[in-house]
Amino acid sequence: MSESGLVVVDKSGGMTSHDVVSRVRRLAGTRKVGHAGTLDPMATGVLVLGVNRATRLLGHLMLTDKAYDATIRLGVATTTDDAEGEVVATATTDGVDEATIRAAAAEFVGDLLQVPTAVSAIKVDGKRAYQRVRDGEEVELTARPVTVHELEVTDVRLSDSTELDVSVRCTSGTYIRAIARDLGARLGVGGHLTALRRTAVGPYDLASARTLDELGDGFALLPIAAAARAAFPAVDLDDQQAGDVRVGRALDLELAALTAVFAPDGEFLALYEPRDGRARAVAVFTG
């Protein structure tokens, strides 16, 4: 396959993101496939993949907001902050009512300093944190700034194992497992994630996603030009400007943010950003 573009996959549970990449490589007939943000094996939902030249878009797509639906169980803390880890503490939730849960959850909206889960893919001295944990090491990660734009509690089930369902819209790099852990700590009972479904990555949502079985029935790409127009502000250039872009020259354009620029015939040429009063190339996709 010589075409370049994006594939939006609805990942099933139990698969790693690399498993999905391997399957799409076979379906697309190319080794040049990558993904825009890992999903844990337990998680399902939107995984955006780039094919051929579109793999170079992925690093920029990772800067976009993401949305999730999740289920959090209170009263049990685990080593991984999700249901796949070992239980490290339990507590009764008898004294925790729905109003208290909703009030505590509201505290996790806004600009936060979040300590990632210890089994994240963050590198510590060149080695993934999750690998250090598997090797028996103690891992302490530094808090990182994240933004949770919305956190809606959609259901609360009070019982011997109190659970709540939440819908979250947040910046890339936010760990929903860490929200489950921290909410449980805030309530004094511990907590962990039992289900996670990513519903959107930037403009790509479940409505545009297909399962791997569906892709196997008829593989199709979102063309790179359409993908760029969907993900970034767009500017259509004249012939002179397009020629300058092809060799990476700066342009006398006023841009407000990272922008996709196109030739007069609609070809996607490059991503440009405002810098030093001009529009300057971030990545050129021609040639």
Automatic annotation (TrEMBL):
Biological processes per GO annotation: mRNA pseudouridine synthesis; tRNA pseudouridine synthesis
Q: Which InterPro entries match?
A: PsdUridine_synth_cat_dom_sf, PsdUridine_synth_N, PUA-like_sf, PUA_sf, tRNA_psdUridine_synth_fam2_C, tRNA_psdUridine_synth_TruB, TruB_C
Q: Which GO terms describe its molecular function?
A: RNA binding; tRNA pseudouridine(55) synthase activity
Q: What is its EC number?
A: 5.4.99.25
Q: Where is the tRNA pseudouridine synthase II TruB subfamily 2 C-terminal domain?
A: 232-285
Write down the top EC class of this protein: isomerase
Record domain tRNA pseudouridylate synthase B C-terminal: where? 177-217
Q: Which regions span the lipid bilayer?
A: none
> Which Pfam families does the UniProt entry name for this protein?
TruB_C, TruB_C_2, TruB_N
Sequence similarity: Belongs to the pseudouridine synthase TruB family. Type 1 subfamily.
What this protein is called in its record is tRNA pseudouridine synthase B
Say which species the protein is native to.
Nocardioides agri
